[in-house]
Structures are given as structure tokens and as C-alpha cells.
Design a protein that fits this description.
The chain contains four helices and five strands. A hairpin with a 5-residue loop joins strand 4 and strand 5. The mean pLDDT is 87. By secondary structure, it is of the alpha/beta class. Strands 2-1-3-4-5 form a five-stranded mixed beta sheet, with helices on both faces.
């Protein structure tokens, strides 16, 4: 093996936002903008397979440390769910508190 390209690099992305329904994409884009304002590198899932498992698999495959989940329950309650993909710790916060929470979060 020549090892021309070195070791694989971990993702430079801090979080990916995944959603249960395409109608949540505008909210996902707003959240991404807010988190970018506090210095976080955030993606909104744009793959063709929008199943929850496919979206989550991308985060795992690309070693993205945080996932922000927008589902029916979260949206109806004005909340978001976040998950640390390295530790498995998961929680929920009011939608307007996410920016404050992520400002100080480390991968």
C-alpha cells in the first residue's frame, strides 16, 4: 500500500440538520444560518434519499459529530432534538435556545 493520501480525515462539519418532511426544509435552512452566525459549520441534508435512516447514515459515514433532528413532534412543540453521534447522548431544546446551546458545544 502506497498511502499516497494519508489517513482519512474527520469531518470538518460540526452538525447536519435532518428532517422528517420536506416541508421542514425552510426551518432547517433558518437553523443552519443561526448556527453559522455563532461559528458552527452546518449542513442541511440534501440527498435524494430522504428517509430518516439514510439521513442518519450520512452523518455516521461522514463522521459528523452532531445531528439536529426536525420531526413532526419537534416542529409541533417548537423544539428540536439534537444528538451527539460520538457519545449517543441525545436531548431536546426549545427551537430558540438551540443557537445558545450550540455556541458553546464542542464536538
Amino acid at each position: 500500500e502506497l498511502k499516497l493520501f494519508g489517513e482519512p480525515q474527520r469531518s470538518v462539519v460540526d452538525a447536519v440538520i435532518i428532517y422528517m418532511d420536506a416541508e421542514f426544509i425552510p426551518d432547517a435552512l433558518k437553523i443552519a444560518t443561526e448556527l453559522r452566525e455563532v461559528g458552527k459549520k452546518v449542513l442541511v441534508y440534501t440527498g435524494s434519499d430522504t428517509s430518516f435512516n439514510a439521513q442518519l447514515a450520512r452523518a455516521v459515514r461522514e463522521e459528523i459529530p452532531w445531528v439536529i433532528i426536525l420531526g413532526e413532534r419537534e416542529m409541533s412543540q417548537g423544539q428540536v432534538t439534537y444528538k451527539n453521534m460520538r457519545t449517543g447522548v441525545q436531548g431536546g431544546v426549545p427551537r430558540d435556545a438551540l443557537k445558545l446551546l450550540f455556541r458553546d458545544l464542542q464536538p
